Amino acid sequence: MHANVITCAKPWIEVFVAFFYPNRCQICGVERVGPDAGYVCGRCWSRPGAIQFIRPPYCQRCGLPFAGDISAPFECANCRNATLHFRFARAAVAARGLVLDVIHRYKYHRALWFEPFLADLLIREAQPALSPSEWDLIVPVPLHPVKRREREFNQAERLAERLSAATGIPCEKRLLKRILPTRTQTRLTRSERAVNVSRAFVMRGRRRLEGERVVLVDDVLTTGATTSSCAKVLQSNGSGDVCVWTVARGL
Questions:
Q1: Half-sphere exposure (CA, 13 Å, Cβ side) for 31?
Q2: How many structural domains comprise the chain?
Q3: Which of the 8 DSSP states describes residue 161?
Q4: Which of 129, 6, 3 is nearest to 56 (CA)?
């Protein structure tokens, strides 16, 4: 199913949820809430520890948050020992608890009604930091065609489109292509993740960039191996700076 078909089907998804769970929060099942909030109610939203927005201090390169009082800019030990091809990565929230549960249900169980909730988290944090005068393109991390057929949509692409609409920065969905059906990264070490995706991406056709500054978008960043591999391809084909924005940051 193509993205435009899913977009057209969105009202039917909302009708389906409303029929079985009429305007009920899909987390607690009690509070009344509608599709604009992604079926996540204010009580679940504000529950202590449910959503942890990432605030300084954090690594200036990968965005990993640190506890404690650190006032000077710093890079974490992982970034100092790694080759990362993006200038910096930022995420809206920590990948834990409510957020991690919603992301898993959204990606792996096609719970598309959660999309406004996830997009809102990303836009809240990314929009103030992304100016159309400083960034030229928003590019989602692509899925391999096999995985896309299995999942029937690319979550990074859909989130990128929403961020593009909020910021006014054009979204280029067909710039990068994933050519290797890599193993899931979940249980791999940092070095294994880097090897796993090192040759997974290429530019589509013979596309070349002319210094455009690119915002890569994905749902979750853990080690940065996937987005770094994408950034390397972009820079090898003429891009300027590349930064990364994700909804959540693995800790």
A1: 16
A2: 1
A3: H
A4: 129
